[in-house]
Write a structure and sequence with these properties.
This protein is mostly helical. The chain is built from eight helices and no strands.
Length: 199
């Protein structure tokens, strides 16, 4: 387990720097195409020094996933505590997800290549992903119950939404046609407005 809180501030900063670099390489090369030597070189480190902070490439992938999911869950719980209607909460969840997914740590192949993790790490990440998915489902289910959303398959709607949001890391480019706010508006138009349309 990555014990960031137990480290000195300097070590925490160094670990965060390594994760940002790893995320950038994962995004450019994909998880399987990325190498520890390449990550270390971009940081001016000898490969051996990188292993002081992370035991393997899989450990880097796990850390990217674990930190991102922790932030997503915390953000979702904060949004769900508000008294805003379900459609506004879902828009806020989409905005928070895009913001995190495309930032310098989250914006990597880590979001779609988590199955490369070893079984014990994968089980931990799947558990967190399931927790986050349940929070999204809760918003949609509440919207259906109070009439904000039309009746639909809640699990299917949630999986479709998360699939679209997570896959954006594969095709989105900062130099491309759409900015992150454009993506938020587009996804909200498709999913939030779609849920509100009459059958």
């Amino acid at each position: 387990m990555v014990q960031i809180d137990a480290e000195t501030p300097k070590a925490q900063d160094r670990r965060a720097e390594i994760l940002r670099r790893a995320a950038a390489v994962f995004r450019e090369k994909g998880f399987h195409g990325a190498g520890m030597r390449e990550i270390a070189t971009g940081l001016g480190l000898a490969p051996g020094a990188l292993y002081y902070y992370f035991e393997s490439k899989e450990e880097l992938l796990y850390a990217c996933q674990d930190i991102s999911l922790t932030r997503l869950i915390q953000g979702a719980r904060t949004i769900l505590k508000s008294d805003h209607p379900a459609d506004e909460q879902l828009r806020a969840l989409i905005a928070a997800h895009i913001d995190l997914t495309l930032d310098e740590l989250g914006g990597s192949a880590a979001h779609v290549e988590f199955h490369a993790l070893p079984p014990d790490r994968l089980a931990e990440i799947v558990k967190k992903r399931d927790t986050y998915e349940r929070l999204i489902r809760r918003v949609i289910r509440r919207g259906i119950k109070d009439g904000t959303f039309r009746k639909t398959d809640v699990k299917l709607a949630t999986m479709a939404l998360l699939g679209a949001l997570n896959w954006s890391v594969v095709w989105w480019s900062p130099e491309g046609r759409w900015s992150p706010p454009d993506l938020v508006r587009g996804f909200a138009d498709v999913f939030v407005s779609g849920l509100k349309e009459s059958a």
